Amino acid sequence: MKPWLKTSSLTLVLFGSLLACTEKPATSLSTEIETRETSVEATLVLEDASLHAWQLGTASLQDTAYSLQALQKAIVVLLHEHSEESLALARQQWHESHKRYHNSAIFLAIGESNPGLFGHLQTLTFNVDAWPIQPGYIDSYGVYTHSGIVNDITVPLNAEAIRRQHGFSDDSEVTLGFHAIAYLLWGENGERRASDFSEAKSNINLDTAPADLPANRRRVLLQLQAQLLIDDAHVLLKHWQFSKGQLKSQYEALEAGSRIELLQAAAAHLLQNLIQPLFEQTQGIEGAAATNSETAHNRFAGNTRAMAAAAVDGLDRLFADPKLGSVIILEGERVQWQTLLGELQDKLKAEPSEQEDFSPLLNQLVTLLEPALLRNVNPT
Q: What's this model's pTM, rounded to 2 decimal places?
């Protein structure tokens, strides 16, 4: 054999041996490929689900914005007719709009459960639904018959001034949002009359211009607040909906698994820190004068129970969504979660009882969320 041929043969033998040593068994390679494919598929599922959840939030906030147009129209009718019927319709539309807003509570709770990333959301919601409020900061209250912006002619009634007064020195100094409007519509103990919105044309006190009379200032303030509420709801929607919006960009910057964990934490926060206190504040008391607590959410408008039911309905829709159900709650816990949430909804929609206790249901729901929160939903 020629020397060069001998060397080439040896090289081929060695190269073949190296391949034999490094080549993985077919079954091991197949398993690795399947694992990678499963991981990629799981990542895509999480990505799709988490983005879909944000779209559900967009739709819910859009619904609120549309509803506020109807509230504004009802207020315009009230100011034109100032009849008890138009006042009742304005109040009814206030409740409808407020409930639709609280259908979004699971999404809005992100700001409170994770203020480090979504503190801006708290700023936006403070303009829309700030509470508790100091009623005397807005209009007369109790023995203070000349208190509030309605009676303070040094405060001009324009958007800039009203926004400047909102939370001026304390968070309870509220001039914007649902609850500032509610106090004007219901007044103290639900005793507001439609005639309080009649235009004052005669000026008994010659030193006071007609525009400065409380009745006229109340009319201007209510109409202004209705428009500012629409504006603030649209600002919130823009930050949520559009790619350059601060909220959406922050959400999309997170990994898909972290987005799901964010929603789970928001659900736990909603149940523990928002839903439960509502019942402790208003248990057994409903109607227009649910004033057993100064911090009761619907202190002047009443019907806090329906508002809480709206928040739970929104939570249910998120967790029951086909794209989200498989990733937002553990598979083995899903049926029990839906059963308990259904019981909570039934209780909220039933007649209130002084003996009812929502704590066990709420605690069980939060307990079911705990293993999902601890789960690493980011596939490896």
A: 0.85
